[in-house]
Specification:
- This protein is α/β, with parallel strands linked by helices.
- Helix content is 59%, strand content 14%.
- It has helices at residues 14-25, 32-41, 45-55, 62-75, 91-103, 118-132, 140-154, 156-163, 176-191; strands at 3-7, 28-31, 82-85, 108-115, 167-171.
- The chain has a 5-stranded parallel β-sheet.
- The two termini are 13 Å apart.
- The mean pLDDT is 96.
- Bound molecules: BIS(adenosine)-5'-tetraphosphate.
- BIS(adenosine)-5'-tetraphosphate (B4P) binds next to helix 1, helix 2, helix 3, helix 6 and helix 9.
């Protein structure tokens, strides 16, 4: 089993690259953002609560997100491996993920971190907001709030994986195909 984390700030290309990576490496895609948006679309109690938090640019509580991931791991016991997209976003989530995978006698193989400067991120997210219907992408104020939360709560997760010698930074600007090729190079080296 090979498990991978795609790491990076909002708008860095995690969702975009994940779509191609799961196809090539036959991984199960676990995007906490997508899973939460599906709860919102289905108007579940969890979704109604999550919407308020996401629209404010904040993080949904760790126990909720960890519960969602635990559920998905249970439902996919025959998976080749998992691609975690947008998770873990806090140190607590990273520790919980290590434990969940250990119970399944597996671990994270590599963490690939997409690096993109903040002005480019704002441009991408506002552009996506014009068509995606995502309410967290339409206000620059909310987008800036998401960066502040990222710098404060999510960036420290890099240290967690650096200490495990699993962290690899990848340039996230340029063509989607070139970035994909660089991600694949790292994965192929890690799998060997
Ligand atoms: P996510 O759904 O994870 O959203 P994201 O970080 O904004 O998007 P992503 O990074 O995947 O977008 P992409 O770059 O592909 O999270 C949304 C919210 O959910 C969070 O704010 C939080 O509230 C909540 N949440 C999610 N996970 C959580 C967790 N674990 N704990 C707590 N809360 C959680 O795409 C951006 C745009 O860039 C696209 O339009 C794309 O076309 C474009 N793009 C991509 N690559 C490009 C390139 N190379 N060049 C130009 N444009 C590019």
């Amino acid at each position: 089993m090979f498990n991978l984390v795609l790491f990076g700030p909002p708008g860095s290309g995690k969702g975009t690259q994940a779509a191609n990576l799961i196809e090539k490496y036959k991984l199960v895609h676990l995007s906490t953002g997508d899973l939460l948006r599906s709860e919102i679309a289905n108007k579940t109690p969890l979704g109604l609560e999550a919407k308020k938090i996401m629209d404010a640019g904040q993080l949904v509580p760790d126990e909720v997100v960890i519960g969602i991931i635990d559920n998905c791991l249970e439902k996919n016991t025959d998976a080749n491996g998992f691609l975690f997209d947008g998770f873990p976003r806090t140190i607590q989530q990273a520790i919980a993920l290590d434990k969940l995978l250990e119970l399944k006698k597996t671990e994270i193989g590599i963490v690939l971190a997409l690096q993109v400067n903040e002005d480019e991120l704002v441009r991408r997210l506002l552009e996506r907001g014009k068509t995606s219907g995502r309410s967290d992408d339409t206000s620059e104020e909310v987008i800036r709030k998401r960066f502040a939360v990222y710098n404060n709560d999510t960036q420290p997760v890099a240290q967690h994986y650096l200490a495990q010698e699993k962290f690899k930074a990848i340039a996230g600007e340029g063509s989607i195909d070139d970035i994909f090729a660089n991600l694949c190079k790292e994965i192929d080296t890690a799998i060997l």
